[in-house]
């Protein structure tokens, strides 16, 4: 019993111990779990905090980097803007420098031309029989008007010798007032030619005429420079020749010298050097002042003091038309020459109007008028003059010489200006003409020599007209030799004659000789114009006479393949050409018919005569295109 109780107590104690052990284990497990949980939570919190710190730091770095990048972009933009501004400023500076350099070149070119124009204007006043101031005023006013209004800025206009020769008899017979009225009327005629766009006909002047024109004027300019040496002897003559050669050498050598300023024209440097040498060393030589005084006043408005009557008009009209013709011809030829050098095509009618305005202004301000001057224009272009600044500067410089610069201009030696013009003569004369004469057609060679000779002997207008007429006759003769007829038999009753070459007044005789109805074996002859053109009324008469000859011989002549322009000419001259409609259906309906009329006529003729399908189709193809 006691053992049982004792065992129960032991078992109870063991159970209690076990229970306590299990409880302690549970508590330990719970403690460990809590510790683990706490550790895990702590670690999780720490990791979370670490991640938050990292994210915060990353965000901070991103923000700071973004600020840095934005700051870098702002700095780059500012730098780029500053660079662009600097470049634009430098570019603007270069452009301003280029504009200033170009303006200086144009102004210096105009001054050079003005120096070369003064003695020419003085010389032409002697030719025209007027006072020197009249020629200087003409050079200034003419140059100013054409420089402001002309189409080609490189062309320099002034008191030209070509017009001075024409008006000299008028001045001698009626006085200088009639000269002013004549110049004004010539200007009006030139302006009218420009308004009517007649300047385009200058393109009909052939190349041999152009070469002859340039060569002739070169000879004329060269001859006029020899006046500088007239009356000089001994030491004075030798000094003038030496100074002329010195000026010419400078003009040729200065462009190659490294020390010479590149922006200053060589002729201007040569003239300045020669003038400085003669004035510093007190060399006795002929000067501009020895030719004629330059000083005077500015031009003033002056209405020509002539009677306003038809008698006055009858007196001045022939001279005015001659001046207008000569002036326009020389101006337009000079314009073409400058266009070729500058590679810029300009409007001829604009230049005609500018010349007309210039001459009308000259007539209203008591000046002798003029036209384009090839010598001064070439000096201007060769010196770099390409804009209106050069021409306007030239005109203003001449006015300044007249008003307050006469003492300076009158001391320039004539040898310097003569050397400048002689260099120009050598430059513009076409030295290849001598070898070209042997290579070009004989007609062109004769035209070249004729225009050159007539320009020297008479005047430019006569020379150009003679050259154009001779060239036209040569062209007509050559074209007349191109007419030919090729025969072939298309059927047993029809002969096809194919006509080649133009049919006009020059070829009608050859045309008639090649088509003789008495030599035709067949009764029907078809004359095919597919390779020929009918040009004028002489051709119409020739066709009419040929048709009459065939009709008298009892044979039929049919015209075929007339081009629309030929058909139009035949329609205008229908009363001259008599060809039967029934026997010549293709030609008879070659008028300007619409589709309905042509179809009706074709059906009618088809029922009466029986046109072939080929003829109907050919007819429709030709006139219903």
Written overview of the protein:
The protein is of the alpha/beta class and 625 residues long. It has helices at residues 2-128, 132-149, 161-174, 176-195, 207-225, 234-253, 266-280, 288-291, 310-342, 348-364, 374-382, 388-403, 406-409, 414-428, 433-436, 442-457, 460-480, 508-514, 537-552, 564-572, 585-588, 595-608, 613-623; strands at 157-158, 371-372, 484-491, 494-503, 524-534, 556-560. 69% of the residues lie in helices and 6% in strands. Strands 3-4-5-6 form a 4-stranded mixed β-sheet. Strands 1-2 form a two-stranded antiparallel sheet. A hairpin with a 2-residue loop joins strand 3 (484-491) and strand 4. Helix 1 (2-128) packs across helix 12 (388-403), helix 3 crosses helix 4 and helix 5 (207-225) runs antiparallel to helix 14. It starts with a helix and ends with a helix.
Question: Would you tell me the structural class of the helices and strands?
Answer: alpha/beta
N to C succession of SSEs: HHEHHHHHHHHEHHHHHHHEEHEHEHHHH
User: Biggest sheet, in brief?
Assistant: 4 strands, mixed
Rg result: 49 Å
Low-confidence stretches: 1-6, 59-67, 575-592, 605-610
Q: How many individual β-strands?
A: 6
Mean pLDDT: 78
What is the topology, as strand order, of the major beta sheet? 3-4-5-6
Query: Per DSSP, what share of the residues sits in E-state strands of 2 or more residues?
Result: 5-15%
Shape verdict = flat
How many helices does DSSP assign? 23
The helix content, as a percent range, equals 55-70%
Span of the ends, CA to CA: 150 Å
């Amino acid at each position: 019993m006691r053992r049982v109780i004792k065992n129960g107590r032991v078992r109870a104690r063991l159970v209690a111990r076990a229970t306590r052990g299990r409880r302690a284990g549970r508590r330990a497990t719970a403690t460990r779990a809590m510790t683990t949980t706490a550790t895990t939570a702590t670690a999780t919190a720490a990791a979370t905090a670490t991640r938050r710190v990292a994210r915060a730091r990353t965000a901070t770095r991103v923000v700071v980097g973004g600020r840095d990048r934005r700051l870098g972009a702002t700095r780059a933009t500012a730098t780029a803007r500053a660079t662009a501004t600097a470049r634009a400023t430098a570019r603007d500076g270069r452009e301003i420098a280029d504009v200033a350099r170009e303006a200086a070149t144009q102004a210096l070119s105009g001054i050079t031309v003005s120096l070369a124009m003064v003695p020419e204007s003085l010389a032409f006043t002697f030719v025209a029989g007027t006072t020197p101031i009249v020629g200087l005023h003409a050079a200034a006013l003419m140059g100013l008007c054409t420089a402001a209004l002309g189409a080609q800025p490189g062309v320099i206009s002034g008191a030209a010798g070509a017009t001075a020769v024409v008006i000299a008899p008028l001045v001698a017979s009626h006085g200088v007032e009639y000269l002013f009225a004549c110049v004004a009327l010539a200007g009006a005629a030139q302006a009218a030619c420009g308004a009517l766009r007649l300047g385009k006909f200058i393109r009909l002047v052939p190349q041999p005429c152009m070469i002859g024109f340039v060569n002739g004027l070169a000879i004329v300019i060269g001859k006029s420079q020899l006046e500088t040496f007239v009356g000089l002897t001994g030491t004075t003559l030798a000094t003038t020749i030496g100074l002329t050669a010195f000026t010419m050498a400078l003009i040729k050598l200065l462009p190659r010298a490294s020390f010479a300023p590149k922006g200053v024209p060589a002729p201007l440097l040569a003239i300045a050097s020669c003038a400085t040498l003669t004035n510093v060393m007190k060399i006795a030589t002929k000067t501009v002042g020895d030719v004629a005084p330059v000083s005077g006043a500015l031009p003033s408005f002056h209405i020509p003091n002539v009677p306003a009557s038809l008698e006055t008009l009858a007196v001045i009209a022939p001279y005015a038309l001659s001046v207008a013709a000569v002036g326009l011809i020389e101006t337009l030829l000079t314009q073409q020459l400058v266009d070729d050098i500058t590679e810029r095509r300009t409007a001829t009618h604009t230049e005609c109007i500018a010349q007309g305005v210039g001459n009308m202004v000259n007539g209203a301000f008591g000046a002798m008028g003029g036209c384009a001057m090839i010598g001064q224009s070439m000096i201007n272009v060769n010196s770099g003059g390409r804009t209106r600044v050069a021409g306007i500067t030239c005109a203003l410089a001449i006015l300044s010489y007249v008003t307050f610069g006469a003492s300076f201009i009158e001391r320039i030696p004539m040898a310097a200006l003569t050397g400048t013009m002689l260099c120009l003569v050598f430059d513009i004369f076409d030295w290849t003409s001598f070898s070209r004469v042997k290579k070009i057609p004989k007609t062109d060679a004769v035209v070249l020599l004729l225009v050159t000779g007539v320009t020297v002997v008479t005047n430019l207008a006569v020379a150009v007209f003679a050259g154009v007429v001779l060239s036209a006759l040569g062209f007509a003769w050559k074209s007349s030799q191109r007419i030919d007829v090729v025969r072939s038999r298309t059927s047993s009753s029809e002969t096809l004659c194919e006509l080649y070459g133009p049919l006009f007044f020059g070829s009608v005789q050859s045309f008639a000789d090649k088509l003789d109805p008495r030599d035709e074996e067949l009764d029907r002859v078809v004359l095919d114009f597919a390779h020929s053109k009918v040009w004028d009324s002489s051709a119409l008469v020739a066709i009419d006479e040929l048709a009459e000859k065939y009709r008298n011989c009892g044979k039929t002549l049919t015209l075929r393949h007339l081009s629309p322009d030929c058909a139009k000419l035949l329609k205008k001259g229908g009363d001259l050409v008599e060809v039967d409609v029934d026997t010549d259906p293709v030609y008879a309906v070659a008028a300007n018919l619409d589709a309905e009329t042509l179809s009706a006529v074709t059906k009618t003729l088809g029922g009466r005569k029986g046109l072939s399908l080929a003829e109907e189709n050919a007819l429709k193809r030709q006139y219903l295109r």
